[in-house]
Amino acid sequence: MAKNADAKRIKILEAAKRRFAHYGLAKTTMAEIAQDLSFSKALLYYYFPDKNRLYAAVFEMAVDEIINETTEKIRTSKDVTEAMEAFLSTRLTVIKENFNIFEFSYSLRNEMPVDIEAVLPSLFEKEIQQVSLILKKGVETKELVVDDVELTAKILLISLLGMRIGILQEFKNLFLPPTKEEFDYILGLQKKLSHIFINGLRA
Amino acid sequence: MAKNADAKRIKILEAAKRRFAHYGLAKTTMAEIAQDLSFSKALLYYYFPDKNRLYAAVFEMAVDEIINETTEKIRTSKDVTEAMEAFLSTRLTVIKENFNIFEFSYSLRNEMPVDIEAVLPSLFEKEIQQVSLILKKGVETKELVVDDVELTAKILLISLLGMRIGILQEFKNLFLPPTKEEFDYILGLQKKLSHIFINGLRA
DNA sequence: TTTTCGAACTTTTAAAGAAATTGGTCAAAA
DNA sequence: TTTTGACCAATTTCTTTAAAAGTTCGAAAA
User: Fold this and answer.
1) pLDDT per position as a tens digit, A173-198
2) What crossing angle do the helices spanning B180-199 and B80-97 adopt, rounded to 10°?
3) Separation of B49 CA and C23 C1' (Å)
4) Where in chain A is the domain with CATH 1.10.357.10?
5) Would the Cβ of B64 be found within 7 angstroms of any atom in strand C?
6) Where along chain A do the CATH 1.10.10.60 domains lie?
7) Which CATH superfamily is domain A52-199 in?
8) Per DSSP, what are the bridge partners of residue B202?
9) Where are the alpha helices (DSSP H) in chain A?
10) Which of A125, A139, B45, B107 is least enclosed by beta carbons within 10 angstroms?
11) B58-199 is classed in which CATH architecture?
12) Which nucleotide is closest to A34, CA to C1'?
């Protein structure tokens, strides 16, 4: 029965997401995910070929969550500044709630296992598209002048990444998930940076 | 004889700098530094209380090198853009030549040993002062409008840090010293970022 | 035929202990 | 005062082993 099967597949994804978001890839075991659902461990392998691909599927869900939510916010924004702020806060909220799912993207602690990396359409690439979207909107409304939209988006995103890294480093907290206060501080600085940055692109 | 003593102290600092710059703190041994100079290991401990303080002294030299050279470049610059570009390229050149001395400042690999950290007037703080200098110059010449100079300098510096981290991550090269090409790429992006950033502060 | 599971198998990680390296000390000599 | 070789203690590295976790498989249930 495909319907029931899909339902179980989704159950597994949800349970795995909870575990991965809370404990990360390494500290989550297949046995634990199975126990949470009262499934047998072997059943997980009926729906997913291995742990890494299960993780990759969860990761992709989380990425989609970021992309979908930010896209909507960008779409309904009045101007570039509003779009940018909405993008930043929405994105950081999703990251905060699923921090350990992004342990390989937004923390420098560990490197992504190669077989996961191969499967994933890079989150970074998608984020560049999101920021490019904002910039293009600004160009269309004559708010901004940007010669190379994608490169500019990339520069801004890398700078924003540095904001997270730099601040977590400052707090000597590069190994624990950031606290709410740290996230707020990061968001504050990210907004300030993007404000200056956008200003630097104004027509 | 204090003069001879000072001369030997400097010899030790130079030999230590070569080792640290090439192999980093952990992979440099006191015995190796002594061998390079045909001194006994114990002599090093006559001039420096321990390995960490020797490293700290070398680190401070390297920091002074950055600060002195960039200060001079900033002083003789015509405008903010020129000052900023001179600051960035001079700074990155010194970092490139002494990369492993800055392994705790500019790479996220390892954290600074606490007793070293305590001794050091943070490089980051000094860099903030340098960028603040540039911004103040811009404010004085009416080129820029900046409300909180230090915070703005901090934001820019953190962004520039992200540029290094982000790019080294992209090259999956977070553990090796960057190549010349990578440094050039980093410098290019840093210049683009600071250009937009400075533009965003213009009066 | 599809789905599920217990048990077995293989690989990875963690722990423990031993060996080697290295940081640091000291009494004596120059 | 400066310098050293010999010595000690702390740390790191390596080896071995045990435990844990990932994965497979054949059989049974649906």
Assistant:
1) 666 778 899 999 999 999 999 999 99
2) 160
3) 11
4) 52-199
5) no
6) 1-48
7) Tetracycline Repressor, domain 2 (1.10.357.10)
8) B144
9) 2-23, 30-37, 41-47, 51-75, 80-97, 114-119, 123-140, 149-170, 180-199
10) A125
11) Orthogonal Bundle (1.10)
12) C5
Sequence-ordered strand ranges (E) for chain B = none
Q: Which helix (H) or strand (E) holds B4?
A: helix B2-23
Nucleotide nearest to A43 (CA to C1'): C4
- Chain C positions with any atom < 7 A from a protein CB: 2-7, 13, 21-27
Residues of chain B falling short of pLDDT 50: 1-3
Instruction: Output the CA torsion A106→A109→A115→A120 (10° steps).
Output: 0
Where in the sequence of chain B do the CATH 1.10.357.10 domains occur?
58-199
DSSP B113: P
Convert the pLDDT of each residue in A63-97 to its tens digit.
Answer: 999 999 999 999 999 999 999 999 999 999 999 99
**Distance (Å, rounded) from C-alpha A27 to C-alpha A13?**
17
**What is A1-48's CATH topology?**
Arc Repressor Mutant, subunit A (1.10.10)
Euclidean distance between the first and final Cα of chain B, in Å? 59
| Residue from A182, A113, A111 nearest B170 by CA | A111
Would you call A152 and B189 a contact, using CB atoms and an 8 Å cutoff? no
